[in-house]
Amino acid sequence: MKKRLFFRILFSYVVVILLVVAIVGFLFSRNVRLHETEQIEENILHSARLVSMLPLEEMKKAVHGLAQDARGRVTVIDAGGNVLADSEGDVSHMELHLNRPEVEEARLRGQGTAIRRSSTLRVDMMYVAVAIREGEKIRGYVRIARSLREVQEAVDRMYLSLYRTIAFALFPAIFLALMYTRKFFRPIGEIRDYTKAIRQGDLPGTLFVNAQDELGQVAEDINYLVSEYREKIHLAHEEKGKLESALSSMVEGVVILDSRSQIESCNRGIETILDRPCADIQGRTLLEAFLSADLQNALERCRREKKPVLQEIRLGGKQPLIVDVNISAIQGLPEGEGKMLLVFHDVTRLKKLEQMRTDFVANVTHEIRTPLTAIIGFIQTLLAGAMDDSETARRFLQTVANNAERLSRLVDDLLTLSSIELNETNLKLEPLSVDDLIRTVLPMVEATAKGKKIPLEVQIPERIPKIMADRDRAAQVLVNVLHNAVKFTQNEGSVTISSHEDEKTDWVVIQVADTGIGIPSREIPRLGERFYRVDKARSRELGGTGLGLSIVKHLMAAHGGKMEIASILGKGTSVSLFFRKAS
Asked: What pLDDT is attached to residue 139?
C-alpha cells in the first residue's frame, strides 16, 4: 500500500511534467512551423514580384536563371493557363494551370498562395503565383514553387533543441518531484502506521505530524478520537473487570447463551454446580451440557412468551441437585443478537434442611406422643378404678414413671443437641488421661452390663498420650457409645474398650467394639442423624431416643475430632473416636 501510493503520487507528478513538456513542444513547434512558412512565403512572394516586372519573353528565356535566384521552381503561364516556360519540366506535356488554386487566387487578387503535397517528391510544396499585368489587363502569371522541407528541418532542429532542454531539465524536475512526494507522503505514512497499530489492538501515544495543512488537522482529529477511544476502552475494561469479579464471586451459577442457544460463557458458580470446568460446556446447548429436558423446555417457554421464567429444576449426576433457574433475555443488545441469561441457585441444601425440619418435627412429635399416650392411658385407667388394686396400681405407676423418664431423657438430649448445634456449648479443653477418662465412665454402664452378663474389657497401653478434651463432654461421648454397645449386644456377649496412637497423624483413637447384632453396611452413613434408628421398634423398646449418636457426632466435631463406625451384620460393631493429642 505504501509503495503503491508513493509511486502513484510520483507518477502523477512525472505525468504532469511530461504533459507540460508535450504541450509546450506542440505549441512551440506550431509557432515555429507557422513562422518558417510565413518567411518562405514572403521570400517567394518577393521573388515572384521581382520576376513579374520582367518582359514576358525575357522571362521565358531566363527561366532557369530566375529559378536559381529564387531557389525554387519557376513557371511562366499565359493568361489562358497555358504553360509558356518551366524551369524543371517540358511545357509541351503540361496541362492547363488556370484552375490551380494559387493561379485562381492570383487572377482574382493579383497574387495567390497554396500548399499541397507533391506526389513525386513526397514533401509539402508552397506555390506562390503573381499576375503579370499590362495596365488593367492580365497577360499571364509567374508561379514560383519551393519545397517546405526546410520548414520541417527547422521544426526538427527545434525539437532537437527541445529534447536537449528536456533531457537537462527533466531529471532535476523528477528529482524535485520525488523529494516533494516523499515530503508529502511522510505524514501520510505516519498516520498509516499509527492507525495500523490501533487496528492491531495497540494504543500508542500521541500522533505527531509536522504539517500545518489538512493532514495536520487529520492528525489532530485522530488524536482526539484515539483519546476518546482509549477512555472508552478503559471504562469498558473497568466495567468488565467489575462484572467478572461480581460473576466469579457469585455463589449462584450464571450462564450466557448466544443467539444460537449455545453456551457463550459461564462463571465459577456453574462449575461448582456441574462439577466440571466451563471450557467443557462452552459452545454446547443447554440440553447437551445439563442433560435436562425441563431446563430446555423452560428456555423455549421464555423465548416464546418473551418474559422471564423462574422454575425449579432437578439435575441428575453423581450427586443430584435441585436448582432454581431464572431465565431472561439480555436487554440493550443490537437486533439479531438474542442472548439469554440463566441464573442457577442451588437450593439442594435448603430442600434437605426443609426435609430435615419436617422429619424432625414428625419424629419429635412421634417420640413425645408415644410416652405421653402411655402416661395418659395408664393415669386414666388408674382414675377409672385400678387404684383399688395396689399391685396393678404399682405396676401402672412404674410404667408412667418409665415413660416420664423417657420424656425427660428426650428433652435433655434435644437441649444438648440444640446447644451444640448453636455453638452455645463452651468446651474447656484440657489434657486428659485416656485411662482415667475410661475408668470414670465405666461405672455408669457396669450395672446394665452385669445385668446382661456382658464383661467390659479395657485395653489401654501404658504410654498412651493424653488427649485435649472437655472432661464432661468427653465422658458424655463415651457414655453414649458404651450405652449403645451394651444395649445392642446380646446376653453374655462382650464389649472391649481400647486406645492407640496414630503415629502418622496427631490422633489418639479410643475404640469401643462389641459383639452385638451389627449394622447393615448401607445404614452406616446415616448413623448420627437425629432420630435415625436402624431397628426403630427394637430401639424404642430398649428406651433409646435416637439422638445418642447424633450428640456424639456433634461433640466430636466440636472437639476438632471425628467419629468412624465399622460394622458387620450379626458379628458386632466398632466405634472409633478420634481426639487430638495434647501438646
From this structure: 85
